[in-house]
Amino acid sequence: MAEFTLKNFQKKPFPFQLTSTVHHDDQAFYLVFKIQGDLGSINLGEYHPKKERVLKLWEKTCFEFFIKDQNSNQYLEFNFSPNFSWNAFYFQDYRSELREWEEIHSIEIDILNSLDHFTLMAKIPYKNIIQKLNSLNNLSYSTTAVLLEKDQSKSYWAIDHLDQVPNFHYFESIKYKF
């Protein structure tokens, strides 16, 4: 299991901390995103559980998981919303055409929310990913987030920001091994 503190690209202070945890077993990948502290500035949206695929989740508060085959330029992007919406995309190459990845039909999402913490947990079936991207030994990953603030500005969070702009698709950032 790996735990990370995500950093904000703008490097401005926020009254909360954002962390992610990644682990897996022989059935699934398990992700946990936690925001702890004063959540008053974050727009977590309205609580209307959709539990369905939705495009452009990154335009609002969205938690993301990138997983890449290190022997090629193929990668997957998973998006999770505070209202239980989700999506998955397959890329043949760096920022190639945005295509929904149809081999996955659902992702389990649970959410815990209180005044000073928000936790999103996601379970992604393992089998489909390995069929698409080969062996677990050749995979690397990263976790990221876009937080929509109540003033409608956005902040961009990642384990590392290695590009000159917020760029979650930057291959050098998708570097953590299972």
- The number of E-state strands comes to 13
Q: Which radius of gyration do the C-alpha atoms yield?
A: 15 Å
Task: Indicate the CATH class.
Answer: Mainly Beta
Biggest sheet: strands, sense, closure?
8 strands, antiparallel
Structural domain count: 1
Strand content: 35-45%
The quaternary state of the protein chains shown equals single chain
Question: Kindly, what is the distance between the CA atoms of the first and last residues, rounded to a whole number of angstroms?
Answer: 8 Å
In the CATH hierarchy, what is the architecture at level 2? Sandwich
Q: What proportion of the residues is helical, as a percent range? A: under 10%
SS content category: mainly beta
Average pLDDT score? 92
